[in-house]
Amino acid sequence: MARLIKFSILLVLVLLVAGEVLGHRKSHSKVPKKIKGHSHVPKSQHHHKPTPVAQPAVQGIPQPTSASSVASPTPATAANGKNICRSYTDTFSNTRIVEAQDYNNDPKTAEWINLSGTTSTYSLDGGQLNMILNPPSSYETITTSYHPYNSQLGYGLTLNSTYLMHYGTVSAKIKASPIGGVVTAYITMSPEGDEIDWELVGNDTLHAQSNWYWNGVILWGVHGGNHTVPPPGISETFNTYTLNWTPDAITWLINGNPVRTLNKADTVVNGTAEFPNRPSHIQLGIWDGSGAPGTADWANGPIDWKSQKSNPRTYVSEVKIECDPTWNQVIN
Ligand SMILES: *[C@@H]1O[C@H](CO)[C@@H](O)[C@H](O)[C@H]1NC(C)=O
Ligand SMILES: *[C@@H]1O[C@H](CO)[C@@H](O)[C@H](O)[C@H]1NC(C)=O
Ligand SMILES: *[C@@H]1O[C@H](CO)[C@@H](O)[C@H](O)[C@H]1NC(C)=O
Ligand SMILES: *[C@@H]1O[C@H](CO)[C@@H](O)[C@H](O)[C@H]1NC(C)=O
Ligand SMILES: *[C@@H]1O[C@H](CO)[C@@H](O)[C@H](O)[C@H]1NC(C)=O
Q1: 3-class SS of residue 183
Q2: Where are the domains of the chain?
Q3: What are the tens digits of pLDDT across the range 183-219?
Q4: What number of other Cβ atoms are within 10 A of residue 273's Cβ?
Q5: For the structural domain made of 35-331, what CATH number should be given?
Q6: Does the beta carbon of 227 lie inside 6 Å of ligand 4?
């Protein structure tokens, strides 16, 4: 009899645990696998009101939304129709960054366009770009059954290169913030929404993530890659993150070692290669991944601002752009 009671108690416990696990799985399965035609970035870094539901990971970098305050530069095109691309190494000693509303549409006059932030979202000193994430003036951490998130976001930086690159190699030396919830991103982005990403997420300092999108079609969690970064990891030292983009393949490299290759041939759907193929800006940024439960989960957030003694920072010491001369009219 005692045995039977013990067995019954055990059975009830097993059923309870199983129910908990299944319930958890179910809440995960609510995360949509595929959303078409939706912006994959927060609408506004400043007043974004996150919805209290599980959401998929936000990827890329926040893009400008206020058309009136943002220039839409015309891509520089040579007489032969090729994209004009500047091959150079930016060591952030004589770098020119202009605000979007001041940009005169002449890529010769600046290296980067500042698309967001306030006066303190970046500084250039000691031969490096310091990308700074400022805290929100106030915020609450909201608990949900899926994952907590913050009611207000910190505001960070997005830089857009003035020139576009149509295939080539770009390398950036980056020392990323280790703070959970802080996302460092370095991507290529075409006006049509072709995108190739490197993303460094705080509190997972031994990994870097890769991703890509084609034609603005956002496939959540479909194309992402997760790659080992050797100790001491993404935050204790500068590592070199490279994108080698050719018409046939994209290779992601860490410190010169290839960690992933995407072949164009493997992206063909119904006869169309869904492969990034259009001239793209290079963008650098830091943003707050605390704004929704799914995003905060992915970003190892939400950010615990109360325990931060200073604003989260990511340092970039060099960006090297080598344009493919077959596809670009290359200038120096
Ligand atoms: C970047 O642009 C924003 C928006 O125009 C502006 O408020 C800010 O001062 C700029 N940042 C710097 C460091 O110039
Ligand atoms: C990283 O996550 C752990 C576990 O959640 C936490 O204790 C720690 O404070 C986090 N560290 C940072 C730098 O975010
Ligand atoms: C920044 O890059 C995006 C993506 O290519 C482009 O559409 C946009 O016009 C650029 N904005 C500015 C102000 O340079
Ligand atoms: C990357 O891999 C590590 C180790 O397995 C894991 O902790 C981390 O959550 C992974 N990140 C993503 C986005 O899959
Ligand atoms: C491919 O095209 C066929 C016929 O038009 C269509 O039924 C199918 O859904 C398409 N597949 C994909 C993955 O788009």
Answers
A1: strand
A2: 1-30, 35-331
A3: 999 999 999 999 999 999 999 999 999 999 999 988 8
A4: 16
A5: 2.60.120.200
A6: no
